[in-house]
Specification:
2 copies of one chain form a homodimer. The first copy, chain A, has 343 residues and is α+β, with helices and mostly antiparallel strands. A 7-stranded mixed β-sheet of chain A has the order 8-10-7-11-9-12-13, sandwiched between helices. The first copy, chain A, has a 5-stranded mixed β-sheet with strand order 1-5-4-6-3, with helices on one face. The C terminus of chain A is likely disordered. Chains A, B: One of its GO terms (molecular function) is magnesium ion binding. Chains A, B: Pathway: Cofactor biosynthesis; thiamine diphosphate biosynthesis; thiamine diphosphate from thiamine phosphate: step 1/1. Chains A, B: Catalyzes the ATP-dependent phosphorylation of thiamine-monophosphate (TMP) to form thiamine-pyrophosphate (TPP), the active form of vitamin B1. Chains A, B: It catalyses: thiamine phosphate + ATP = thiamine diphosphate + ADP.
């Protein structure tokens, strides 16, 4: 770890504090943090992902506790490992800390992050700290592929495949709007929605289960829903994405979704009723739920239903690039609400 | 890549711009960016390091060009890979961009970073972009160990080992002080010193050469000099570092350094003369040079001299924890100048 925090703490204080929440050594890591580089073993291909988690862009300190910020900064990254069916292994942490954060805040932050890291047995293998005006967190995660062919990409959907989701849709969006409007008090009235926004649980076990299935069959296509189904489903179908990546397999696909309102979370239904919104639209637009979104051959369904809690089918992959949900074109919801990009 | 930049550019614009400077695919990378995770091959142990590079903490836009900022943000990280004798492979980039940076700046920044990445054949395998108040860059690099036992750590120095440096000491410090005082004009009068600060070259070839030597002998101890010899040499000798890392081999060591002023860079000597400073003290205090600092058995010296340009011996490892340079205790320079912590 490198540390440039001016008068915040001494470097030794900070390293000792880190040591309390993140062991220096872990089985499976050849060399932990403390040298110029850490060293990861050679055995398995490594999945890598990284995300920024920034104050007043991705979270607010006014209604997110230090523990929740620490948890979510890592959880969003772990969700990307889950979305590839890989097992969390290690991460690096770059932190910019404003001057008004004290030692208690820092400990609570590390405690939230450390609990999640411990749950998945992840090692903190490096990082950097500096004094900044806004709180800013940059995490890079590394995961292991669990076997031959077990890395799940977004590509590979075929017409007739079933589209599925693992987890809730639209719940975090309710939490975001209520927390923005009413602050922390919103937790009392909308506990599940606020929990979904404040402390999302990455779907690691579901990702690994899907990866196991992939080792003996045509692999499911998989991603996590971070920007909402309206934006993410076209990516799964290869309609958008970084230039040239998906041309080979994804383009030319569409979807017909059937999402009965009755399958949505009770708090989303109640919130929509009160605000005169269509709950299915909210579910399609809502981001930040960190559900998994995928497609697979229909003959995998019974095994996946049996093995994965919160697994539900939402439609089928079709030919042609149109996407419908309950017979409405999904494109009519694009640009519907930019508030969600805050979350 | 995830992108949250509001009105800065469209996401497609940014992804296309990135694509111009960083190819999506590279030999040796199983899956590049564009999915939830990239995928690195399983063949060799991977070295990992990460650093923040922040406006007005680590650099200033007033006298650093966009190209130089892009170059140095990556160079500082590559230097950590070099300091472990590992070969650069890939990196992730998290960027916070202020609203006043335009497309030309962004292109120049990527060009500076892209040239250095191309030099070492590194793939950009993931990242995140957001709108921020200050320019902030967070890079995580991954490198490959080139063979059995070829990872060089800071540990393992023994009494009688020769202490060596690859590259200049104190030159970037002159550049920093002149650029801080006079802005970009300082480049005219102190070209090498400013170049050392603005566009450091990581010592990758030297690190790899030292790693090759390590495969057939007791490995050299190695690190890069980022905070100045006064702070970094005690780390090499195991006197400081993250708790518990070095207890097993490093403690109880000291050093006797002999650094004749005549071996220092001409600009450092001239600058010290003009400012009434001791050039050797400046060389010991100065950080940000990204020289390599190491120790090795004396019988390796002739091979290393022959193979590594800018390799020079500066002293020997001794028993006991005292460090002297030209018979003065190094501890007398500790805390001498906190200006250097800015760079």
């Amino acid at each position: 770890m490198t540390v440039h925090v001016g008068t915040f703490h001494s470097e030794d204080d900070i390293l000792n504090t880190l040591g309390r929440y993140f062991p220096l050594r872990k089985p499976g890591i050849l060399l932990g943090r403390g040298d110029d580089c850490a060293l990861l073993p050679a055995g398995k291909p490594l999945s890598v992902s990284t995300d920024l988690f920034l104050e007043d862009v991705h979270f607010r300190r006014s209604y997110c506790s230090a523990e929740e910020i620490g948890h979510k900064a890592l959880a969003c990254n772990i969700s990307d490992l889950a979305a590839c069916g890989t097992r969390p292994l290690a991460f690096t942490l770059n932190l910019g800390l404003p001057a008004d954060l004290d030692n208690a805040w820092f400990n609570a932050f590390l405690s939230g992050m450390g609990s999640l890291a411990a749950k998945y047995n992840m090692a903190l293998i490096g990082g950097d700290l500096s004094r900044t005006r806004d709180l800013q967190i940059s995490v890079t995660v590394m995961g292991e592929v669990i076997g031959e062919g077990a890395f799940l990409s977004r590509g590979g959907s075929m017409p007739g495949d079933v589209i599925f989701v693992v987890g809730a849709l639209g719940l975090a969006r309710v939490g975001l709007q209520e927390l923005e409007a009413h602050g922390r008090e919103a937790v009392q009235e909308w506990p599940k929605a606020c929990q979904a926004l404040l402390k999302p649980e990455p779907r690691v076990d579901a990702g690994l289960m899907l990866a196991r299935v992939a080792m003996n069959a045509r692999p499911p296509a998989l991603m996590d829903v971070s920007d909402g189904l309206v934006r993410d489903l076209p990516r799964l179908l290869g309609q958008t994405g970084e230039m040239g990546v998906w041309g080979e397999h994804g383009s030319g696909l569409g979807a017909e979704l059937i999402i009965p309102a009755g399958l949505l979370q009770a708090e989303l239904l109640e919130w929509s009723r009160r605000h005169g919104r269509n709950p299915v639209h909210e579910a399609l637009i809502g981001g930040d739920d960190y559900a998994l979104l995928g497609s697979c051959a229909p003959d995998m369904l019974s095994a996946l239903h049996a093995a994965i809690p919160d697994f539900w089918e939402i439609g089928v992959v079709t030919e042609g690039e149109a996407i419908y949900c309950n017979r409405e074109p999904l494109s009519s919801l694009e640009g519907f609400d930019h508030f969600s990009s805050q979350g």
